[in-house]
Write a structure and sequence with these properties.
Length: about 160
């Protein structure tokens, strides 16, 4: 982990805050090449009701447009939550060299938690993985978001039970 990793993770956190502002799960991603951000995105799954609109996939799509190729060689993807299997597959297939993530995902993480697709030597491409960069900040954002949803749900349930 470097100071630059923390700097770019802060940019991913800013993207995650954009998601949170529209009541999306606060996950953000940025893709950097030659110390320049070439793409950024945040989770839009609830907004689009489309299972593939994860922050990483949206950022990969934008980065491919920016470089004019499906090959994202010499890039680093920064994401606030450990990539899931779907995103890990897209990361590998787009040839991202390095993945830096914030919070671990014990339920779906495929960059070290459940498995490590990104560094599996059975694939023809592998990524360097740097976990836990500003992980506490990223994890707390998710914890607070889901706590707020649960509290909101509980309050609505109480109001239905006792409308006065």
């Amino acid at each position: 982990m470097t100071e630059r990793d923390e700097y770019w993770m802060q940019r991913a956190i800013e993207e995650a805050k954009k998601a949170e502002a529209i009541r999306e799960v606060p996950i953000g991603a940025v893709i950097v090449k030659n110390d320049e951000m070439i793409a950024s995105a945040y989770n839009l799954r609830e907004t689009t009701q489309n299972a593939v609109t994860h922050a990483e996939l949206l950022a990969i799509e934008k980065a491919c447009d920016a470089v004019g190729s499906w090959r994202l060689e010499d890039t680093t993807l920064y994401v606030t939550l450990e990539p899931c299997p779907m995103c890990s597959g897209a990361i590998l297939l787009s040839r991202v060299d390095r993945v830096v993530y914030g919070a671990r995902d014990p339920k779906a993480g495929c960059a070290g938690s459940l498995m490590n697709l990104l560094e599996d030597d059975r694939f023809n491409h592998r990524c360097e993985v740097v976990p836990d960069v500003l992980g506490e900040v990223c994890g707390q954002m998710l914890t607070d978001f889901f706590r707020g949803l649960r509290e909101e749900k509980k309050l609505k349930k109480q109001m239905l039970k006792d409308p006065d």
